[in-house]
């Protein structure tokens, strides 16, 4: 399994709006080939930080989706959102074991 972890920190006190947008997301990725699941986390000690974890059967499925659907997947971002500069990061993982 291939896992993509995106993290970012909200700079302008819009964490509640961002969290609500994830809770009410339109599930556009859910039927993408190779998509398994998504988790959105917020560390208790960093309430303006968001971790978005997507699970895929393989890296190619993720890359195809990312290339073709990134714009529409971000269409629900709350207007006016500002991120801490250079806080957005993406890391990739290979699942080893449960």
UniProtKB/TrEMBL annotation:
<dbReference type="InterPro" id="IPR011008">
    <property type="entry name" value="Dimeric_a/b-barrel"/>
</dbReference>
<dbReference type="Pfam" id="PF03992">
    <property type="entry name" value="ABM"/>
</dbReference>
<dbReference type="GO" id="GO:0004497">
    <property type="term" value="F:monooxygenase activity"/>
</dbReference>
<keyword id="KW-0503">Monooxygenase</keyword>
<dbReference type="InterPro" id="IPR007138">
    <property type="entry name" value="ABM_dom"/>
</dbReference>
<keyword id="KW-0560">Oxidoreductase</keyword>
<feature type="domain" description="ABM">
    <location>
        <begin position="2"/>
        <end position="92"/>
    </location>
</feature>
<protein>
    <submittedName>
        <fullName>Antibiotic biosynthesis monooxygenase</fullName>
    </submittedName>
</protein>
């Amino acid at each position: 399994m291939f896992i993509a972890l995106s993290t970012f920190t909200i700079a302008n006190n819009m964490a509640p709006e961002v969290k609500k947008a994830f809770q009410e997301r339109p599930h556009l990725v859910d039927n993408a080939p190779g998509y398994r699941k998504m988790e959105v986390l917020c560390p208790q000690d960093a309430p303006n930080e968001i971790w978005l974890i997507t699970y895929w059967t393989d890296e190619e499925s993720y890359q195809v989706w990312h290339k073709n659907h990134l714009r529409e997947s971000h269409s629900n971002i709350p207007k006016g959102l500002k991120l801490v500069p250079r806080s957005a990061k993406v890391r990739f993982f290979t699942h080893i074991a449960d």
